[in-house]
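The authors assume throughout that readers already know how a fold can be written as discrete tokens. The format is easy to grasp once an entry is in front of the reader. For illustration, here is how one protein appears when written out as sequence plus structure tokens:
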Amino acid sequence: MTTPTSLKTQAQARFHDLRMLIAGEWTRGSGAHAEAVIDPSTESSLGDLPLACEADLARAAEAAQAAFPAWSRTSAMERRRILMEAARLIRERAELIAHVMTLEQGKPLAEARGEVTGAAEIFEWYAEEARRIYGRVIPPRQPNARHWVQHEAVGPVAAFTPWNFPALTPARKMAGALAAGCTCVIKPAEETPATALELARACVDAGLPVGVLNVVFGVPAEVSGFLIRHPAIRKITFTGSTQVGMQLASLAARHGAKRCTMELGGHAPVLVFDDCDVDAVAQACAASRLRNAGQVCVAASRFYVQRGVHARFVERFAEFAGRAVVGSGLDSGTTLGPLANARRLAAMDGFVEDALAQGASLVTGGARIGERGYFFSPTLVTGMPDSARMMREETFGPIAPVAAFDTVEEALSRANALPYGLAAYAFTDSARTARAVGDGLQSGMVGINTFGVSLAEAPFGGVRESGYGSEGGTEGLQAYLTTKFIAHLP
């Protein structure tokens, strides 16, 4: 029987010889550079990650290009078989992968397990959806003519993913591309490399042909710049900040007008109306805000509460947040792990200082915990103006700013005032209010009486400065396909 201690030991061993996957070879590359992977709970090094040089990146892109013709012609049933086997292996190895994730990213094991399960579901969804890449027949204008539409893989894909969900986000990009018949070069976050490598290992062990999937690491700007400029790459998919996403989209437009899916930053508003069960809603909001230490792009991150229940909401939110157990994600009782790095700690301090300078009241938290590890206390702030930074900028941490509102119209106006539109939420028992906010919130995803907007079978993406295109659902598969119209006259 595998014990928690042995699993931790096995997970730690994964960092002792980190490698890239290029042209079917597990390699440390031909470059001379590496960087340490840091455990955010202890600030100690887990291992050294090799960084690709241009020769490594060229080899990865060329491998994807060489593998594309055969993989794009591989039957949908065979692609399905391989992806389903990869999903099975991910589930079989879930406990080990969860421990790897917690070591490098910090989130509690319970959250890591849930994320690994979600990654397996994504592989399964895309595996099944590969069989449904349907075309259509168009009635011709001439006798004996034939008109039809078919969908084809766009080509080799360059994918870039962040550190906050090191299994879920790479899974969306890997599985979507592979299901469509595309090959892929993916650069996961250097802070959290080992989780994505475990997904890649499952794909290889499932029988994925050489060169179809390549995994590289390096200096982010150098890797993205090289791959986007490379003539083999036909599509870009990126999850990360709005600023970086805009730069990559601009680069893609200048080098062959390459197709892009951009899942960028957000700052999700939550509208809490006075007709809801405020105690239950406050608990749900606290859980959403504190999940993954607040480092979630679609997390509830700015709260607008109708004035009649504002005081009660704040009281109950603070109570639930106060129950959080902060510590190493490997400890069984932990419910709130560390932030990703020291930069995030400094950012939290800046948000709190700015709010207090603008007249806010600190209800709870607001400071670092301990001297080792990137731990920050669950923080609740009220009474700040909408001009405060934490009301305008994505905090990406365990900070909850709460403001009062009076009318539906006011709440919608304030919720839509920012240029972001990734996710938005509302809690109400009124059907009329639910329809008004569902129609009125300017966001790619809207949850009404739920925070459950990230599902394998549903589109995941934003509008305005939160990006364009979707991952997940049928829309996520279409993003890797081109449309071809064929007119045939015998």
The chain has two domains: 4-264+465-487, 268-455. The first strand starts at residue 20 and ends at 22. The CA atoms of residues 76 and 131 lie 5 Å apart. Residues 268-455 form a domain with the Aldehyde Dehydrogenase; Chain A, domain 2 fold (CATH 3.40.309.10).
